[in-house]
Structure formats: structure tokens, C-alpha cells
Amino acid sequence: MTTMTSELPLPLDGVRVTDFSWIVAGPQATRILADLGADVVKVENESYLDSMRIGLRQDPKNPSLNRSGFHSNLSRNKRGITANLFHPKGREAVERLLAESDVVIENYSAGAFGRMGFSWERLQEINPSLIYVSVSGFGHVGRDASYTTWGPSAQAISGATAMSGLADQPPAGWGFSYLDHSAGYYAAIAALMALHHRARTGEAQHVDMSQIECGMVVSAVPMLDYQVNGRRYVRVGNRSRYPSTAPHNTYPCAGDDRWIAIAVDDEDQWISLCEVLGLDGLLEDSRFADMASRKANEDALDTAIGAVTCEREPFELMIELQARGVPAGVCQRTDDKQERDPQLAERGFYPTAPHEELGEHRYEGLPMQFSGARSRMDRGAPLLGEHNHAVLTELLGYSDEEFASMLAELAI
Prior knowledge:
- The chain is an alpha/beta fold.
- Helix content is 39%, strand content 12%.
- β7 (248-253) and β8 (258-263) form a beta hairpin.
- The protein is elongated.
- The relative contact order is 0.15.
């Protein structure tokens, strides 16, 4: 497997992406492309800042638009410029950048990019080979195309929120904007597929991504059950309905808010679990004689298991259960993952990289390693407008005098 310091090639070296994205969904997509070697140039406007620059700043008492860890993580490995699209020279600079790019990605509300003067038709005039990836809540087609969304509202519409929680409680949803991130993953895949298609056919295209539809994939089994059996989905919390297995839950462990997830799907695992926990008596209990019986008496089963696990150290218990072939995992906190997880450490999942204001920090890596290529973690997010001069003079061909004039006229 490769490492960040490998001399192997970057898969997307030579690909240029103009990044008009903000908040999470779009920046997640362009972050992946940048990690894989694409030259991603983030275009910003000081009058309409990415809210991620403002949130989760390192020191709220010493405000800076460059000190948000969240923004630095989502925009790492990118270059950044500022441009005023209301100024003719600012717009011209952006159009020059688009003409030199392979992909442009934005995640504004449907139609917003067109109203900014960059419809699909206009983009094709600027650069006929440019791939355009739009990521919006409902997509650009349909009755609801003009509706706006945020991560949690998109989750609700997709059906994911209704599926999460306990049967006798309101929908719990997720305390994390899952669809913001999953839409970014899908958008990165879509950009790669469009690049592959262009390499084969020479054709560019507009990829119209719907964030809500990204959430539909988590409801595949309930959808099938409804179509075939006419049954509506019932929230089950951490338990499993399809397949119908027990025990299948999270159980308390020793310590403050420490938990372990355990899932048993065959009789060998059941026997091993009972032996590790010292619950041999359960093997003779008719209520737990087989999977169907255990499922029918799941409340009593979970109570019996939890009464023992609450005295056990979670990591030691996980290791012991896994050694016996029982699927078990500690419900890890952030400090567990970053400081105590030897698996993540061995895979180098949290590489460090410098940032001009934040200093040296760790970032989460990509969850794949290549035998013949590599990803990178070179630097944190660009400072606001950090690469204005380099991009405009070295890439777009402006002279130093023209650059100075654009600065003076607030075109950039």
C-alpha cells in the first residue's frame, strides 16, 4: 500500500477544476478531486463568503476568515482566488479560468449559476470541452427544482430521517449532515465518470446532481419490502429487522458514556459471545434457544447482555470478542479515533499538513490506498485570495501591471 510520501503518480494530475462550491456538499466533492491530484481553484467573493470560513474558527476572540478548521479540511490541497463578477475584468478572469479548466462544480440552488451568467449554454461557448457538475437539493428539473435545502431538510425529504430512531419515538434523524457529505462523494464520482466519458467520446456534459436523491439509496430494503409485501418501514433503533438477528444493539461499558456495538448472526457467534461474557446460562435458556427465539425475547436478551458489558472495558471487550469471531466495535469518540486507534494509525488515516495561520494540523485522509498511485495531503485550505497573483499571472496570462490594475479596481 502507498503512503502520502510516495513518489507514485497522483491519479488526477493534469486535471483542472474551477470550484464555485461552498458550505459542505460541493467542497466535499472538490476536496476529493484535489486529494487525488487535480488542480482545484476555489473562486470566492468577499461579499458572499463561504459560511464555513466563519464557523468553527480556532479563536473566536481573534477572528480571521482563514482560521476555521472545518473550512481548512474541506478546502485542503486547493488554490484560492477572489473575483468580483460584477466587474467586467473580474468576470473576464473567471471566464479565462473556465476556458483553461476540465470541470466546473457548484452547489448553489438550481438556476443560481445561470443567473450569475454561467448557464450550460454559456459554459459551452466559453469552453466546449468543459464538464459542468451542479449539486442542488432537488436537481435542476422537476416541480421542486426551485426549492432550497440544507443537509437536515434534504435528509427528511429523502426518507432517511423517518427511518432513524426508536419505534415509539418521533423520527430522530442524524445529528450530522450526512447528505451534505454523501452528495459530495456522489458528485466526485460523477465528475470522474464524466471525465472518463469525455476521454472516450470527446463529449462534455452537464451533470445534474440531486442531493435528496443521494439519500434515497439508504432506503433500498424498505422500498423493496413496501413494493413486494405492502409493509411500511418501522423504526428499530440499533436493532435489525432485515435480516432478523439478535443480539444486535449497542451496550453500555465501563466508563463515562462508553458503549460497544455487538451483532450476532449465527449460532457459533452466539456461543462465543456467551462464553466471553460469562453468560453460559443463556445457552440453556429456552427463550434464547435459536435466532427466532432470541429475536422474540430481544428486550430480555439486551438487558442480560448490558448487565455484564457495563462492567467491561470497551476496547478489551472488543478485542476479546473479535478474537472469537464475534462482530463487535467500540463506539469510538473523536479522541479514540485520533489518539488511541492503532488501525487508523497504521494506515496513516490522519496525515498532518501545514496551514498559513492554523499551523500544522491533522486532517482525515481518503479511505482508500492505491498500489500504483497515491493521494496527497500537501496543505490546508488557501487563505482568502491567497493565489490571486499566481493564478492570474502564471495560469491566465495577465501581466503584473494588469494584475495591479484589477486589484485597484476591486475586480479581484
